[in-house]
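pls design
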């Protein structure tokens, strides 16, 4: 081999090895875990027939079948998203995913309930931790 070919081969190998080293260094950083709701997150949860000015109205523990029941949550330290998990006789039947815009936030969901049963709405963080609940009956 001529000196020029050896120099070209050496430069090619150097570039190839440098590229491999750079490729290893350029690996993307691991994706950080989803923002978790702080462990001190709480929810004051109430059920009623409506919401006015962020307050539950028609609050009750029993509602007649066919009523639209509203569940309101006053959240503290629950930024991100929460879920209202509606349960009938202990089984989840519907989930509302609700956005939270600040450290103190009010949000609500509603369902028209056609059948009698024991109901509960559990407020959960994005990772499934329970931060509040309300129970009521439909007759």
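designed seq:
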């Amino acid at each position: 081999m001529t000196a020029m070919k050896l120099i070209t081969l050496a430069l090619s190998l150097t570039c190839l090895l440098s590229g491999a080293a750079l490729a290893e260094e350029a690996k993307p950083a691991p994706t950080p875990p989803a923002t978790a709701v702080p462990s001190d997150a709480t929810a004051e949860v109430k059920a009623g027939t409506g919401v006015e000015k962020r307050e539950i109205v028609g609050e009750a523990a029993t509602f007649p079948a066919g009523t639209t029941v509203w569940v309101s949550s006053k959240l503290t330290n629950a930024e991100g998203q929460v879920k209202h998990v509606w349960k009938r006789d202990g089984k989840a039947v519907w989930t509302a995913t609700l956005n939270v815009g600040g450290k103190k936030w009010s949000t609500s969901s509603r369902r028209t309930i056609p059948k009698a049963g024991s109901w509960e709405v559990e407020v959960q963080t994005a990772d499934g931790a329970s931060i509040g609940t309300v129970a009521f009956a439909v007759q």
